[in-house]
Amino acid sequence: MPFDRALRSALFASGIIIMLLGVPSAVAAQTRAYQLSYYILGSVQRPGEYPYRSGMTVLHAIAMAGGYYRASDAGLRLERDAALAAGDLKILAAKRTLLTVRRARLQSELDNAPDIRPPAEAGPALDVAGHLEEERRLMQARRKSFLDDTNRLTEQVTHLNDEIASLRATIDAQGREAQLIRRELDEVRVMVGRGLTPTARQYLLERNLAQIESKQRELETFISRARQTISRTEQNRVALANQRQAALITELQQADSDLNEVGARIETQRQLLAEAEGIAPTGAGTRSRPDEPRPAYLVLRGDGAAAQERLATEGTLLEPGDIVRVQTPGATRLTAGQ
Fold first, then answer.
1. Region 224-252: what's the mean pLDDT?
2. What is the distance between the alpha carbons of residues 280 and 77, in angstroms, rounded to a whole number?
3. Strand order across the beta sheet in which 48-51 lies
4. What is the pLDDT of residues 294-335, one digit of tens each?
5. 101 and 219 share a domain?
6. Same domain flag for 316 and 220
7. Does residue 289 lie in a domain region?
8. Which of 45, 62, 261, 279 has the most CB atoms at less than 10 Å from its CB?
9. Which residue has the higher pLDDT, 175 or 329?
């Protein structure tokens, strides 16, 4: 007498038939794994393979798969997407206002304007006023820093020029003194040649003249070094201005790039918002109603040619290896063998 299907399933689940038939252990393990699973597909949240438990019904299987797939879920997601897109639009609009004011500040700095020229396309007046005040403080701080650095270099040049002027005055005074010594030395040399004065006086004058000329050469060296320092300082002052201008141009280009990116993102968010707002009401209207027809179920049982399809209900008991198909209202109705 053939086994009853429920009894056969229980025996398969316990592995008794597998042991009686002498099936290899690897095949037996695969067979038990297959026999202790069922499959569900169609209008459920998470279709796929699930472990079988004794006494399971179609409704249990649907619950394991996360419940019915509902069009209202898509509608709710679209409503949420619309809300998120609207929020992102506000954030992007505020960012665009900030970037527009920042760009105006950078352009004003580049033009050495005394103050920021408020942009007409920035946005609401209150937002612009707040951003303008922040950017104005930043502009003033940066300008003060630049002017401090420039003034420090200018003061160095002025100090060096004053020092050069002082050294030049000393050299001129020593030059006049050297000229007097040379005249006296010429007279002393004549007198020494005639034997009218000792040579010691001539040597003293020559030594004094040599010291003055040596001091003049040292001062000329100091002046040359000071002029080199002035040249480097002037180059640093020019480089400082060029670096500031280059940095402002780079920041201005970055602000333009950021503005273009924000503009593109705003346009994308607007399209997403329009799409979500256009679709969400339709999705929301498909939420389940009490008078809505119930889903249909189909169970495929068996393997190969012996497989049979049958219509089922939520209370239909399942067996290991069953395949459950769920059809929600509005789709083509299921029939056995479909």
1. 96
2. 8
3. 48-51, 37-42, 323-327, 296-301, 308-312
4. 789 999 988 766 788 899 999 999 999 899 999 876 544 445
5. yes
6. no
7. no
8. 62
9. 175
